[in-house]
Automatic annotation (TrEMBL):
<dbReference type="GO" id="GO:0016020">
    <property type="term" value="C:membrane"/>
</dbReference>
<comment type="pathway">
    <text>Protein modification; protein glycosylation.</text>
</comment>
<protein>
    <recommendedName>
        <fullName>N-acetylgalactosaminide beta-1,3-galactosyltransferase</fullName>
        <ecNumber>2.4.1.122</ecNumber>
    </recommendedName>
</protein>
<dbReference type="InterPro" id="IPR026050">
    <property type="entry name" value="C1GALT1/C1GALT1_chp1"/>
</dbReference>
<dbReference type="InterPro" id="IPR003378">
    <property type="entry name" value="Fringe-like_glycosylTrfase"/>
</dbReference>
<dbReference type="Pfam" id="PF02434">
    <property type="entry name" value="Fringe"/>
</dbReference>
<comment type="similarity">
    <text>Belongs to the glycosyltransferase 31 family. Beta3-Gal-T subfamily.</text>
</comment>
<dbReference type="GO" id="GO:0000166">
    <property type="term" value="F:nucleotide binding"/>
</dbReference>
<keyword id="KW-0472">Membrane</keyword>
<keyword id="KW-0812">Transmembrane</keyword>
<keyword id="KW-1133">Transmembrane helix</keyword>
<keyword id="KW-0547">Nucleotide-binding</keyword>
<feature type="region of interest" description="Disordered">
    <location>
        <begin position="1"/>
        <end position="23"/>
    </location>
</feature>
<feature type="domain" description="Fringe-like glycosyltransferase">
    <location>
        <begin position="205"/>
        <end position="355"/>
    </location>
</feature>
<keyword id="KW-0735">Signal-anchor</keyword>
<dbReference type="GO" id="GO:0016263">
    <property type="term" value="F:glycoprotein-N-acetylgalactosamine 3-beta-galactosyltransferase activity"/>
</dbReference>
<keyword id="KW-0808">Transferase</keyword>
């Protein structure tokens, strides 16, 4: 049977016989280009605090950290790139409250003999005065009412807000001289007023000291190691927007833990305070925010200033004897200690670190307190009932029914714990670092 010719195929009305077109092939390079273009477009148009943008940024940093080891900290002893005079270039904002006002004199007493902090602003939820004298201060320190500042200048329209009413309750008790009632109010809702001090306290400080290179915000139970602070600041350019501290929070908002100390550069402060439109909405948010340090991060995020976590391990949210000394920070400076709630505890830490004249490393903490570092201890029994782990949390592992310190040490060695073990023999408990 002969093949049907092209002409006969056309004659039966079926038209010319054609081959089907091959499907266009999308090259991987073109796909990659489209994906990058979409990503760059979204990166440019999405707000700085957009969840998608924050999630990508957080996961990228986590991935990068798993690939790259921690940068060298040779800068600690290197020639300063941006030399500063702490007395003239740094202002300290001490955050307190009427209920904890007795901590501030202890904070001032704890300053070392080589103290360089000259300009200190004390902010609280009421006005007051602190009798104090040193080489820089002979008339004491005024306590500024940061909450009243925010209500008077930014929140006049919110006089019926529950938090504003609570502030007026405290103010009324103080005006009547009823200290017992005032202290009761502080215990009841002082933490709510605390969230309103951060932004207003920074604004008050910037209004008085607009040309400082660095702004250091601390709680009244936070001790700052000045010899560790100076080399960090001299390593960074204050004309760039730096926001530093102990990183906490999830990917949606990473913020510097207020108790561990917060540092802002001159550029960051100028960007924050001079943007009155953004500042106005943040003041309103302070009426309902739980944590003022998170509110500060939120304000900075709106302006494209993210927390720099490169130096988070220098900031410490624990007291010295409960500080966790991990392998990733053993040879790094420690800049702060927190949770020193009593005046006696603050003064004791000040006395222990009074003669420190160079950057204090994490591995110096044992000897600073008169203890033998674990790596120099040769007798296993010497570890009985010693604690080298600190407060037990998600970063620690507790093993029950341990009879001897030697058994605890073997468990620690087997798990390659990054901190030295503690063993409470009377309770038969061994606590080690869960980070292997």
């Amino acid at each position: 049977m002969s093949m049907t010719s092209k002409g006969s195929w056309n004659r039966v009305g079926l038209g010319p016989k054609t081959r089907p077109r091959p499907r266009p092939r999308i090259r991987p390079r073109r796909l990659l280009g489209v994906a990058l273009s979409v990503f760059l477009f979204l990166w440019l148009v999405l707000p700085y605090d957009n969840t998608v943008r924050l999630a990508f940024r957080f996961n990228w940093k986590e991935l990068k950290a798993s690939w790259v080891s921690r940068p060298s900290e040779r800068w600690v002893y290197a020639h300063p790139e941006f030399p500063i005079d702490v007395g003239s270039d740094v202002v300290v904002i001490v955050k307190t409250g009427y209920g904890t006002r007795e901590r501030v004199p202890a904070w001032l007493d704890a300053l070392s003999r080589g103290n360089e902090f000259r300009d200190i602003i004390v902010i609280a939820d009421s006005e007051g005065h602190i009798d104090f004298a040193d080489q820089f201060h002979d008339k004491g320190l005024h306590v500024h009412d940061a909450v009243g500042h925010s209500l008077q200048l930014h929140l006049r329209a919110y006089k019926d807000h529950p938090r504003v009413k609570k502030y007026h309750k405290l103010a009324e008790a103080l005006s009547k001289g009823d200290e017992a009632l005032a202290l009761d109010h502080c215990r009841s809702f002082g933490w709510e007023l605390d969230a309103m001090k951060f932004i207003s306290g920074l604004e008050m400080t910037y209004q008085k000291y607009p040309d400082k290179s660095w702004y250091l915000l601390v709680d009244d139970d936070t001790f700052v190691v000045q010899p560790s602070l100076k080399p960090l600041l001299e390593h960074l350019d204050p004309t760039q927007p730096h926001y530093l501290g102990n990183a906490v929070g999830d990917f949606r908002i990473r913020f510097a833990h207020g108790g561990s100390a917060v540092i802002l550069s001159q550029a960051a402060m100028r960007t924050l305070i001079q943007n009155q439109r953004a500042l106005a909405s943040i003041y309103v948010d302070s009426l309902d925010e739980t944590w003022g340090d998170r509110l500060l991060a939120k304000a900075l995020l709106h302006l494209g200033i993210y927390l720099d976590e490169t130096y988070s391990h220098l900031f410490n949210g624990e007291p010295p004897l409960l500080s966790k000394i991990r392998a990733d920070r053993l040879c790094s400076p420690v800049l702060s200690f927190h949770k020193l709630p009593s005046p006696a505890a603050m003064r004791e830490v000040g006395e222990n670190f009074r003669n420190v004249s160079k950057p204090l490393m994490w591995n110096d903490l044992w000897e600073t307190h008169g203890y033998t570092p674990p790596w120099r201890q040769t007798d296993g029994a010497f570890h009985d009932d010693w604690d080298h782990v600190g407060a037990l949390d998600e970063s620690t592992l507790t093993i029950d029914k341990i009879k001897t310190a030697e058994t605890c040490k073997k468990n620690c060695d087997r798990r390659s714990a990054r901190v030295w073990p503690g063993c409470g023999i009377p309770r038969r408990v061994c606590a080690t670092s869960a980070l292997g």
